[in-house]
TrEMBL record:
<keyword id="KW-0648">Protein biosynthesis</keyword>
<protein>
    <recommendedName>
        <fullName>Translation initiation factor IF-2</fullName>
    </recommendedName>
</protein>
<comment type="similarity">
    <text>Belongs to the TRAFAC class translation factor GTPase superfamily. Classic translation factor GTPase family. IF-2 subfamily.</text>
</comment>
<feature type="compositionally biased region" description="Low complexity">
    <location>
        <begin position="71"/>
        <end position="93"/>
    </location>
</feature>
<keyword id="KW-0396">Initiation factor</keyword>
<feature type="binding site">
    <location>
        <begin position="189"/>
        <end position="193"/>
    </location>
    <ligand>
        <name>GTP</name>
    </ligand>
</feature>
<feature type="binding site">
    <location>
        <begin position="243"/>
        <end position="246"/>
    </location>
    <ligand>
        <name>GTP</name>
    </ligand>
</feature>
<feature type="region of interest" description="G-domain">
    <location>
        <begin position="137"/>
        <end position="285"/>
    </location>
</feature>
<keyword id="KW-0963">Cytoplasm</keyword>
<feature type="domain" description="Tr-type G">
    <location>
        <begin position="134"/>
        <end position="307"/>
    </location>
</feature>
<feature type="binding site">
    <location>
        <begin position="143"/>
        <end position="150"/>
    </location>
    <ligand>
        <name>GTP</name>
    </ligand>
</feature>
<dbReference type="GO" id="GO:0003743">
    <property type="term" value="F:translation initiation factor activity"/>
</dbReference>
<keyword id="KW-0547">Nucleotide-binding</keyword>
<comment type="function">
    <text>One of the essential components for the initiation of protein synthesis. Protects formylmethionyl-tRNA from spontaneous hydrolysis and promotes its binding to the 30S ribosomal subunits. Also involved in the hydrolysis of GTP during the formation of the 70S ribosomal complex.</text>
</comment>
<keyword id="KW-0342">GTP-binding</keyword>
<feature type="region of interest" description="Disordered">
    <location>
        <begin position="57"/>
        <end position="128"/>
    </location>
</feature>
Protein backbone atom coordinates (compact mmCIF):
# COMPACT_ATOMS: atom_id res chain seq x y z
CA UNK A 1 0.00 0.00 0.00
CA UNK A 2 1.38 3.41 0.85
CA UNK A 3 5.06 4.16 1.36
CA UNK A 4 6.72 6.78 3.46
CA UNK A 5 10.09 8.47 3.36
CA UNK A 6 12.41 7.62 6.23
CA UNK A 7 12.86 11.20 7.40
CA UNK A 8 9.12 11.81 7.25
CA UNK A 9 8.53 8.82 9.48
CA UNK A 10 11.32 9.93 11.82
CA UNK A 11 9.62 13.29 12.15
CA UNK A 12 6.26 11.70 12.67
CA UNK A 13 7.35 9.44 15.51
CA UNK A 14 9.81 11.96 16.94
CA UNK A 15 13.13 10.15 16.69
CA UNK A 16 16.38 11.22 15.09
CA UNK A 17 17.07 10.16 11.53
CA UNK A 18 20.19 8.24 12.41
CA UNK A 19 18.27 6.36 15.09
CA UNK A 20 15.71 5.46 12.46
CA UNK A 21 18.53 4.18 10.23
CA UNK A 22 19.88 2.10 13.12
CA UNK A 23 16.52 0.45 13.52
CA UNK A 24 16.32 -0.23 9.78
CA UNK A 25 19.83 -1.68 9.86
CA UNK A 26 18.77 -3.89 12.75
CA UNK A 27 15.82 -5.08 10.69
CA UNK A 28 18.01 -5.71 7.68
CA UNK A 29 16.03 -3.24 5.58
CA UNK A 30 17.98 -1.70 2.75
CA UNK A 31 17.85 2.01 1.94
CA UNK A 32 19.93 4.54 0.08
CA UNK A 33 19.35 7.62 2.17
CA UNK A 34 16.91 9.10 4.65
CA UNK A 35 14.79 10.11 1.72
CA UNK A 36 14.35 6.52 0.64
CA UNK A 37 10.84 5.21 1.06
CA UNK A 38 9.88 2.25 3.18
CA UNK A 39 6.92 -0.10 3.05
CA UNK A 40 3.96 0.10 5.34
CA UNK A 41 4.61 -3.20 7.11
CA UNK A 42 8.14 -2.01 7.92
CA UNK A 43 6.63 1.17 9.33
CA UNK A 44 4.36 -0.88 11.54
CA UNK A 45 7.32 -2.92 12.75
CA UNK A 46 9.31 0.22 13.56
CA UNK A 47 6.43 1.74 15.48
CA UNK A 48 6.10 -1.49 17.44
CA UNK A 49 9.80 -1.47 18.27
CA UNK A 50 9.65 2.10 19.47
CA UNK A 51 6.51 1.49 21.46
CA UNK A 52 7.98 -1.54 23.21
CA UNK A 53 11.18 0.33 23.84
CA UNK A 54 9.08 2.90 25.59
CA UNK A 55 11.34 5.62 24.35
CA UNK A 56 10.33 8.25 21.95
CA UNK A 57 12.25 11.43 21.61
CA UNK A 58 15.88 11.37 22.64
CA UNK A 59 16.17 15.07 23.48
CA UNK A 60 18.90 16.73 25.43
CA UNK A 61 22.06 14.86 24.72
CA UNK A 62 22.41 15.90 21.14
CA UNK A 63 24.34 19.08 20.93
CA UNK A 64 24.06 20.32 17.40
CA UNK A 65 21.39 18.38 15.66
CA UNK A 66 18.13 18.90 17.39
CA UNK A 67 16.02 15.78 17.25
CA UNK A 68 12.78 17.55 18.01
CA UNK A 69 11.75 18.73 14.64
CA UNK A 70 8.53 20.54 14.06
CA UNK A 71 6.39 18.91 11.49
CA UNK A 72 7.02 20.65 8.20
CA UNK A 73 4.19 22.71 6.85
CA UNK A 74 2.69 20.93 3.94
CA UNK A 75 4.16 22.09 0.72
CA UNK A 76 7.16 23.92 2.14
CA UNK A 77 9.75 21.46 3.27
CA UNK A 78 11.49 18.69 1.38
CA UNK A 79 8.77 16.41 2.66
CA UNK A 80 6.51 17.88 0.02
CA UNK A 81 8.37 15.89 -2.60
CA UNK A 82 5.95 13.52 -4.22
CA UNK A 83 5.94 10.21 -2.42
CA UNK A 84 5.44 8.52 -5.76
CA UNK A 85 9.00 9.21 -6.80
CA UNK A 86 9.77 5.99 -5.08
CA UNK A 87 13.10 4.33 -5.06
CA UNK A 88 13.48 0.62 -5.26
CA UNK A 89 12.33 -0.33 -1.83
CA UNK A 90 13.82 -3.00 0.29
CA UNK A 91 12.67 -6.51 -0.36
CA UNK A 92 11.36 -8.58 2.45
CA UNK A 93 11.87 -7.53 6.02
CA UNK A 94 14.05 -9.98 7.80
CA UNK A 95 14.14 -10.58 11.49
CA UNK A 96 16.86 -8.78 13.42
CA UNK A 97 19.93 -10.78 14.24
CA UNK A 98 19.10 -12.32 17.55
CA UNK A 99 21.88 -13.53 19.78
CA UNK A 100 21.30 -16.89 21.34
CA UNK A 101 20.20 -16.73 24.95
CA UNK A 102 23.10 -16.43 27.31
CA UNK A 103 25.46 -15.37 24.57
CA UNK A 104 27.49 -12.23 25.14
CA UNK A 105 26.17 -9.23 23.32
CA UNK A 106 28.58 -6.83 21.63
CA UNK A 107 28.68 -4.69 24.76
CA UNK A 108 29.90 -7.68 26.68
CA UNK A 109 26.75 -8.04 28.69
CA UNK A 110 25.06 -11.39 28.77
CA UNK A 111 21.98 -11.37 26.62
CA UNK A 112 18.83 -11.92 28.59
CA UNK A 113 17.28 -15.26 27.68
CA UNK A 114 14.04 -14.03 26.20
CA UNK A 115 15.58 -11.83 23.55
CA UNK A 116 12.93 -10.39 21.31
CA UNK A 117 12.92 -8.27 18.23
CA UNK A 118 12.47 -5.23 20.40
CA UNK A 119 15.88 -5.51 21.99
CA UNK A 120 17.67 -3.93 19.09
CA UNK A 121 19.47 -1.63 21.45
CA UNK A 122 19.08 -0.18 24.89
CA UNK A 123 18.76 3.48 25.17
CA UNK A 124 19.20 6.29 25.69
CA UNK A 125 21.35 6.62 28.80
CA UNK A 126 23.23 3.39 28.13
CA UNK A 127 24.50 4.51 24.76
CA UNK A 128 24.86 8.23 25.36
CA UNK A 129 27.74 7.78 27.75
CA UNK A 130 29.81 5.66 25.38
CA UNK A 131 29.21 7.68 22.22
CA UNK A 132 30.95 10.89 21.36
CA UNK A 133 28.79 13.97 21.05
CA UNK A 134 27.58 15.11 17.66
CA UNK A 135 29.32 17.98 15.97
CA UNK A 136 28.01 20.48 13.44
CA UNK A 137 28.61 19.80 9.74
CA UNK A 138 31.25 21.80 7.89
CA UNK A 139 30.02 22.69 4.43
CA UNK A 140 31.82 23.94 1.34
CA UNK A 141 30.14 25.52 -1.68
CA UNK A 142 31.57 24.81 -5.10
CA UNK A 143 30.48 25.36 -8.67
CA UNK A 144 31.04 27.21 -11.92
CA UNK A 145 31.86 30.92 -11.88
CA UNK A 146 28.79 33.17 -11.75
CA UNK A 147 26.46 30.34 -10.82
CA UNK A 148 25.82 32.06 -7.50
CA UNK A 149 28.18 30.68 -4.84
CA UNK A 150 28.86 34.07 -3.27
CA UNK A 151 25.21 35.13 -3.50
CA UNK A 152 24.08 31.94 -1.79
CA UNK A 153 26.58 32.34 1.03
CA UNK A 154 25.60 35.99 1.40
CA UNK A 155 21.94 35.11 1.64
CA UNK A 156 22.59 32.48 4.29
CA UNK A 157 24.90 34.79 6.22
CA UNK A 158 22.39 37.63 6.10
CA UNK A 159 19.50 35.50 7.31
CA UNK A 160 21.10 32.87 9.52
CA UNK A 161 24.02 34.43 11.35
CA UNK A 162 23.19 35.76 14.78
CA UNK A 163 23.58 39.51 15.08
CA UNK A 164 27.19 40.37 15.75
CA UNK A 165 28.23 41.43 19.19
CA UNK A 166 28.36 45.10 19.98
CA UNK A 167 31.69 46.47 18.87
CA UNK A 168 32.63 43.34 17.01
CA UNK A 169 33.79 43.93 13.47
CA UNK A 170 32.59 41.27 11.10
CA UNK A 171 35.25 40.77 8.53
CA UNK A 172 36.04 38.04 6.12
CA UNK A 173 37.66 35.22 8.05
CA UNK A 174 37.02 32.29 5.71
CA UNK A 175 34.15 30.69 7.56
CA UNK A 176 30.90 31.50 9.32
CA UNK A 177 28.38 29.71 11.47
CA UNK A 178 24.72 29.61 10.53
CA UNK A 179 22.08 28.95 13.16
CA UNK A 180 19.10 27.08 11.83
CA UNK A 181 16.07 25.84 13.72
CA UNK A 182 17.50 22.34 13.33
CA UNK A 183 21.07 22.98 14.34
CA UNK A 184 24.29 24.77 13.62
CA UNK A 185 25.95 24.61 10.19
CA UNK A 186 29.48 25.84 9.53
CA UNK A 187 30.14 27.25 6.07
CA UNK A 188 33.57 27.64 4.55
CA UNK A 189 33.16 30.91 2.73
CA UNK A 190 36.15 30.97 0.47
CA UNK A 191 34.16 29.59 -2.40
CA UNK A 192 35.66 27.90 -5.36
CA UNK A 193 37.76 24.84 -5.58
CA UNK A 194 40.93 26.60 -4.56
CA UNK A 195 40.21 26.49 -0.85
CA UNK A 196 38.99 22.92 -1.09
CA UNK A 197 41.91 21.69 -3.19
CA UNK A 198 44.69 23.51 -1.36
CA UNK A 199 43.39 22.19 1.91
CA UNK A 200 43.10 18.68 0.50
CA UNK A 201 46.51 18.93 -1.15
CA UNK A 202 47.98 19.28 2.33
CA UNK A 203 46.30 16.11 3.40
CA UNK A 204 43.54 17.70 5.41
CA UNK A 205 39.85 17.21 4.88
CA UNK A 206 37.87 20.02 6.33
CA UNK A 207 34.49 19.77 4.63
CA UNK A 208 31.90 17.16 5.55
CA UNK A 209 29.42 18.08 2.84
CA UNK A 210 29.85 19.77 -0.55
CA UNK A 211 27.11 21.92 -2.06
CA UNK A 212 27.44 21.97 -5.83
CA UNK A 213 25.78 25.12 -7.15
CA UNK A 214 24.44 24.92 -10.70
CA UNK A 215 22.65 27.85 -12.34
CA UNK A 216 19.29 26.76 -13.70
CA UNK A 217 19.81 28.81 -16.86
CA UNK A 218 23.25 27.47 -17.62
CA UNK A 219 23.32 23.85 -16.39
CA UNK A 220 26.59 21.90 -16.12
CA UNK A 221 29.74 23.83 -17.02
CA UNK A 222 33.42 22.84 -16.89
CA UNK A 223 33.95 24.02 -13.32
CA UNK A 224 30.77 22.23 -12.26
CA UNK A 225 32.26 18.97 -13.47
CA UNK A 226 35.52 19.80 -11.71
CA UNK A 227 33.70 20.54 -8.47
CA UNK A 228 31.83 17.24 -8.70
CA UNK A 229 35.10 15.41 -9.36
CA UNK A 230 36.71 17.06 -6.32
CA UNK A 231 33.84 16.12 -4.04
CA UNK A 232 33.90 12.56 -5.36
CA UNK A 233 37.66 12.26 -4.92
CA UNK A 234 37.35 13.49 -1.34
CA UNK A 235 34.42 11.11 -0.77
CA UNK A 236 32.40 14.02 0.55
CA UNK A 237 28.63 13.71 0.18
CA UNK A 238 27.19 16.13 -2.35
CA UNK A 239 24.01 18.14 -2.40
CA UNK A 240 23.15 19.90 -5.65
CA UNK A 241 21.61 23.36 -5.37
CA UNK A 242 20.00 24.38 -8.64
CA UNK A 243 20.22 28.16 -8.32
CA UNK A 244 18.52 31.09 -10.10
CA UNK A 245 15.17 29.33 -10.35
CA UNK A 246 13.61 32.81 -10.26
CA UNK A 247 14.78 33.44 -13.81
CA UNK A 248 12.28 33.05 -16.64
CA UNK A 249 14.77 31.00 -18.62
CA UNK A 250 15.47 28.67 -15.68
CA UNK A 251 15.31 25.02 -16.70
CA UNK A 252 15.90 22.86 -13.61
CA UNK A 253 14.79 19.72 -15.44
CA UNK A 254 17.59 20.12 -17.92
CA UNK A 255 20.08 20.32 -15.04
CA UNK A 256 18.70 17.09 -13.59
CA UNK A 257 18.89 15.33 -16.94
CA UNK A 258 22.45 16.56 -17.47
CA UNK A 259 23.39 15.26 -14.02
CA UNK A 260 21.96 11.88 -14.89
CA UNK A 261 24.38 11.70 -17.82
CA UNK A 262 27.20 11.91 -15.27
CA UNK A 263 25.67 8.98 -13.45
CA UNK A 264 24.41 11.27 -10.74
CA UNK A 265 20.77 10.40 -10.54
CA UNK A 266 18.46 12.79 -8.67
CA UNK A 267 16.12 11.28 -6.10
CA UNK A 268 13.03 12.04 -8.11
CA UNK A 269 14.48 9.99 -10.94
CA UNK A 270 15.01 7.09 -8.61
CA UNK A 271 18.60 7.81 -7.65
CA UNK A 272 20.07 9.06 -4.40
CA UNK A 273 21.36 12.51 -5.36
CA UNK A 274 19.71 15.24 -3.34
CA UNK A 275 18.82 18.15 -5.63
CA UNK A 276 17.33 21.32 -4.19
CA UNK A 277 16.01 24.15 -6.37
CA UNK A 278 16.90 27.53 -4.86
CA UNK A 279 17.14 31.21 -5.57
CA UNK A 280 19.84 33.23 -3.88
CA UNK A 281 17.92 36.28 -5.03
CA UNK A 282 14.50 35.54 -3.52
CA UNK A 283 15.63 33.06 -0.89
CA UNK A 284 13.25 30.41 -2.20
CA UNK A 285 14.34 26.89 -1.37
CA UNK A 286 17.16 27.93 0.96
CA UNK A 287 15.37 26.62 4.06
CA UNK A 288 15.04 23.29 2.25
CA UNK A 289 18.73 23.34 1.38
CA UNK A 290 19.65 23.92 5.03
CA UNK A 291 17.31 21.15 6.10
CA UNK A 292 18.93 18.75 3.64
CA UNK A 293 22.35 19.70 5.00
CA UNK A 294 21.19 18.77 8.50
CA UNK A 295 19.67 15.52 7.21
CA UNK A 296 22.88 14.61 5.42
CA UNK A 297 24.88 15.42 8.54
CA UNK A 298 22.64 13.14 10.56
CA UNK A 299 23.23 10.25 8.19
CA UNK A 300 26.97 10.92 8.27
CA UNK A 301 26.63 10.80 12.05
CA UNK A 302 29.38 13.36 12.60
CA UNK A 303 30.92 13.16 16.03
CA UNK A 304 34.00 14.47 17.79
CA UNK A 305 35.35 14.43 21.30
CA UNK A 306 35.54 17.91 22.82
CA UNK A 307 37.65 16.46 25.64
CA UNK A 308 40.05 14.64 23.33
CA UNK A 309 43.35 15.75 21.92
CA UNK A 310 43.11 18.98 19.97
CA UNK A 311 43.39 18.85 16.18
CA UNK A 312 42.61 21.60 13.72
CA UNK A 313 43.23 22.96 10.25
CA UNK A 314 44.15 26.42 9.05
CA UNK A 315 41.34 27.84 6.92
CA UNK A 316 43.20 31.03 6.11
CA UNK A 317 45.85 33.33 7.49
CA UNK A 318 46.61 36.99 7.00
CA UNK A 319 48.43 39.98 8.44
CA UNK A 320 46.35 42.64 10.07
CA UNK A 321 48.05 46.03 10.26
CA UNK A 322 47.04 46.54 13.85
CA UNK A 323 46.65 43.09 15.32
CA UNK A 324 49.45 41.27 13.54
CA UNK A 325 49.16 37.72 12.21
CA UNK A 326 45.63 36.36 12.32
CA UNK A 327 44.70 32.84 11.38
CA UNK A 328 41.33 31.17 11.11
CA UNK A 329 41.57 27.73 12.64
CA UNK A 330 38.88 25.11 12.27
CA UNK A 331 38.72 23.05 15.43
CA UNK A 332 38.21 19.45 14.33
CA UNK A 333 38.47 17.68 17.64
CA UNK A 334 39.28 18.56 21.21
CA UNK A 335 38.96 22.08 22.53
CA UNK A 336 41.16 25.09 21.87
CA UNK A 337 41.73 27.33 24.86
CA UNK A 338 43.17 30.75 25.33
CA UNK A 339 46.83 30.34 26.32
CA UNK A 340 47.28 26.99 24.53
CA UNK A 341 50.40 26.48 22.46
CA UNK A 342 49.80 25.62 18.82
CA UNK A 343 52.18 24.00 16.39
CA UNK A 344 51.84 24.47 12.64
CA UNK A 345 54.52 22.90 10.51
CA UNK A 346 57.79 23.91 12.10
CA UNK A 347 56.45 26.92 13.93
CA UNK A 348 54.62 27.38 17.13
CA UNK A 349 52.68 30.14 18.78
CA UNK A 350 50.60 30.85 21.83
CA UNK A 351 46.92 31.64 21.57
CA UNK A 352 46.93 35.22 22.83
CA UNK A 353 43.42 36.08 21.75
CA UNK A 354 40.59 34.21 20.14
CA UNK A 355 37.46 35.47 18.42
CA UNK A 356 34.51 33.65 16.94
CA UNK A 357 33.50 34.31 13.34
CA UNK A 358 31.23 37.11 14.54
CA UNK A 359 34.16 38.96 16.04
CA UNK A 360 33.17 38.17 19.62
CA UNK A 361 35.96 37.31 22.06
CA UNK A 362 35.93 33.75 23.28
CA UNK A 363 38.04 31.70 25.66
CA UNK A 364 37.55 28.24 24.25
CA UNK A 365 36.23 26.55 21.15
CA UNK A 366 35.09 22.97 20.59
CA UNK A 367 34.76 20.76 17.50
CA UNK A 368 33.44 22.24 14.24
CA UNK A 369 34.10 25.75 15.45
CA UNK A 370 36.04 28.16 13.27
CA UNK A 371 38.02 30.65 15.38
CA UNK A 372 40.30 33.50 14.59
CA UNK A 373 43.52 33.14 16.50
CA UNK A 374 46.06 35.80 17.34
CA UNK A 375 49.47 34.52 18.32
CA UNK A 376 51.22 33.05 15.29
CA UNK A 377 54.52 34.68 14.39
CA UNK A 378 54.17 34.00 10.67
CA UNK A 379 51.17 33.61 8.43
CA UNK A 380 50.27 29.92 8.21
CA UNK A 381 48.98 28.53 4.91
CA UNK A 382 45.46 27.31 4.46
CA UNK A 383 45.24 23.57 4.82
CA UNK A 384 48.11 23.32 7.29
CA UNK A 385 47.36 21.04 10.19
CA UNK A 386 47.42 22.43 13.70
CA UNK A 387 48.21 20.50 16.85
CA UNK A 388 48.41 21.70 20.42
CA UNK A 389 51.13 21.40 23.02
CA UNK A 390 50.82 21.61 26.79
CA UNK A 391 53.46 24.30 27.17
CA UNK A 392 56.16 26.14 25.31
CA UNK A 393 58.73 23.46 26.02
CA UNK A 394 56.54 20.73 24.52
CA UNK A 395 55.76 22.93 21.51
CA UNK A 396 59.48 23.49 20.89
CA UNK A 397 60.13 19.76 21.10
CA UNK A 398 57.53 19.01 18.43
CA UNK A 399 59.04 21.67 16.18
CA UNK A 400 62.58 20.35 16.70
CA UNK A 401 61.53 16.78 15.98
CA UNK A 402 59.85 17.89 12.76
CA UNK A 403 62.89 19.91 11.68
CA UNK A 404 65.22 17.00 12.29
CA UNK A 405 62.92 14.62 10.39
CA UNK A 406 62.91 17.03 7.49
CA UNK A 407 66.73 17.31 7.51
CA UNK A 408 67.03 13.51 7.51
CA UNK A 409 64.85 13.31 4.43
CA UNK A 410 66.80 16.09 2.73
CA UNK A 411 70.14 14.48 3.52
CA UNK A 412 68.96 11.12 2.24
CA UNK A 413 67.90 12.83 -0.95
CA UNK A 414 71.29 14.54 -1.37
CA UNK A 415 73.11 11.25 -0.72
CA UNK A 416 71.06 9.37 -3.29
CA UNK A 417 71.70 12.10 -5.85
CA UNK A 418 75.47 11.91 -5.18
CA UNK A 419 75.48 8.15 -5.66
CA UNK A 420 73.57 8.56 -8.86
CA UNK A 421 76.10 11.10 -10.11
CA UNK A 422 78.99 8.76 -9.21
CA UNK A 423 77.30 5.97 -11.07
CA UNK A 424 76.87 8.19 -14.10
CA UNK A 425 80.58 9.06 -13.82
CA UNK A 426 80.11 12.79 -13.52
P1 LIG B 1 29.79 33.09 -8.08
O1 LIG B 1 30.79 33.47 -9.11
O2 LIG B 1 29.41 31.65 -8.21
O3 LIG B 1 30.19 33.46 -6.69
O4 LIG B 1 28.44 33.88 -8.46
P2 LIG B 1 27.85 35.19 -7.81
O5 LIG B 1 27.24 34.93 -6.50
O6 LIG B 1 28.86 36.27 -7.86
O7 LIG B 1 26.65 35.49 -8.82
C1 LIG B 1 26.86 35.77 -10.18
C2 LIG B 1 25.73 36.62 -10.70
O8 LIG B 1 24.51 35.89 -10.64
C3 LIG B 1 25.51 37.90 -9.90
O9 LIG B 1 25.18 38.94 -10.79
C4 LIG B 1 24.33 37.56 -9.02
O10 LIG B 1 23.57 38.68 -8.68
C5 LIG B 1 23.53 36.61 -9.90
N1 LIG B 1 22.75 35.66 -9.12
C6 LIG B 1 23.20 34.85 -8.14
N2 LIG B 1 22.20 34.09 -7.65
C7 LIG B 1 21.09 34.43 -8.35
C8 LIG B 1 19.73 33.99 -8.31
O11 LIG B 1 19.31 33.13 -7.55
N3 LIG B 1 18.89 34.58 -9.21
C9 LIG B 1 19.29 35.53 -10.08
N4 LIG B 1 18.38 36.04 -10.90
N5 LIG B 1 20.55 35.96 -10.13
C10 LIG B 1 21.46 35.42 -9.27
MG1 LIG C 1 31.97 34.35 -6.07
Amino acid sequence: MSKIRIYTLAKEVGVENHRMLEILDGLGVQYKSVSSTIEEDTVELIKQILAEEGTQVTGGQVEDVSPTVDAAEPGTGPTSAPATAAQPTAPAVTAPPEPAPGQMSSEGRPTPPAATATQVEERPAATATTELPHRAPVVTIMGHVDHGKTSLLDYIRKTKVAAKEAGGITQHVGAFEAQTSKGRIVFIDTPGHEAFTTIRARGANVADIAIIVIAADDSLMPQTREAIAHAQAAKVPMIVAINKIDLAQADPDRVKTDLTQLNLVPEEYGGDLVVVPVSARSGEGIEDLLEYIILTAEIEDLRADPKGEFAGVIIEGKVDKQAGVLATVMVQQGTLNLGDFLVVGEKYGKVKAMTDTNGGRIKSAGPSTPVQVLGFSEVPDSGEKVVAAKNEHAAREIVQARASDRRDVENARVRSRLTLEEMMGS
